[in-house]
Amino acid sequence: MTTSAEVRLPRQTKGKRPHFFDDPSIDQMMTFLLELTTEVGVLRERLDTVERLLDSKGSVTRAAIEAYQPDPAVEQERAAWRDAYLKRVLRMHAPE
Amino acid sequence: MAANPKDIPIPNIEELFRPTHDERARQGMVSMIRKHAIIDMRRALKSDYEERIEPKLEREGRKPEDSAAIEKSLNREASYRFYSSIRYNAQEMCYLSVQPAVERALPGMIDLAKDLAVRNPTGGSLRLNPNLEIPRYITALDVHLAPGWVHAEYTADDVAQGAVVTFGGKVFSGQHPYRKKPGAVGESLAYWIKKKFPNFKPKRILDLGTTTGKNLLPYCTAFPNAEAHGIDVGAPVLRYGHAIAEHEGIPVHFSQQNAESTDFPDGHFDLIVSSFFFHEVSVKATKKILQECNRLLAPGGVMVHMELPDEATVSPYENFFWNWDTLNNNEPWYTSYRAQDPIQLCEEAGFARDQSFKLHVPDILTFGEERHAKFMRGELESPAHGSGGWFVFGATKR
Lengths: 96, 398
Description:
The structure holds two protein chains of two kinds. Chain A contains three helices and no strands.
């Protein structure tokens, strides 16, 4: 049996995947788009951490980024940013 | 003098989950995408339907009258397609965003859970049955799009799925206004039971499909003298839940059993509960489980299940909204479960019809005690299921 350190959890779900668009490649594109949208948010948050560390300490290391713990006020600010960011990226056309 | 083992602090298995900076950021983003789909886009979809699509079809004399007709009227509309696609992707990403950190934490989590299962420092217990046949209605699909759901095991003494559903669940509900605190359902129902049955002092509590027991723990706090039992078919969630309960200092007896047929004696429990459970099992199994509840519930006992509102309780549009999960969230029993009348199900299982009930109860964390008192006096209605209230059904036994 696999040892606990070797376990790689499955990333694919068992069951039929629904298609919401006439062309299933649009469904695939939506996954690409949402993953990419998420990665931009991650990158932006990393930059935010760097800026906050520079403001408070004047220098930054990878270890300091990793150890950074946002306080509730920062967390709230970040949540508000994510919310506004998604509302911009996922702007819907008016129905025709 | 040797230290008393009772004085040694019990480590928290959840603290072993240590996502990196970027993983935490990813989880935060996924929570917000999920919120965007289930709150913002859901609202936009409803407006699009009520303000544009339904009036147009009504003018043409073909107003959709039920859930399936509403779905058909919407499934080629951009509002529906993007809502569905974003909601589906967000659901998958909840679990994907926590899996790497669970993999890294796994060896330590397993060691801790194993140690606590031997020592039971708080006085709970863990009883597994490796020969238990996991029903096909659980294994055929990955429910909630969670690969491995509550039952899959990848190594000896595995707890991975306990951690995946717990932390994935936190990402899922991280920005949901009524689901921010794990165990909100158990807390709300225990509060309601105490107000509804003020003299009720259960000796034993049973939680069906308990997974990690997060909705059972609030009942233990509400009824601290009761002996608490949680059952599930999945071993990894039980091992994980046992480690949490021991850490929390709440003795819970977890056992791996199928709720259709348990090994407890007749009349063993005076409070039987469950949360988000029946719609994940087949209707046939639901009927057997309720019969088992009737066998297990002692005279004077109370049975309360938090479930989805049945079809007859809500509007056709709400039915369409809830039934979306049937095909799109790997919950194949959702629609057929919701088509049942919970009162009738109780009666068929042997409970007295006039002792059976269904209603919405307020989410105590968001509704507040003062308004809850007004709800109990019939002066205020409970918010709807998932919007500040929880739908429940059950029965009492004379």
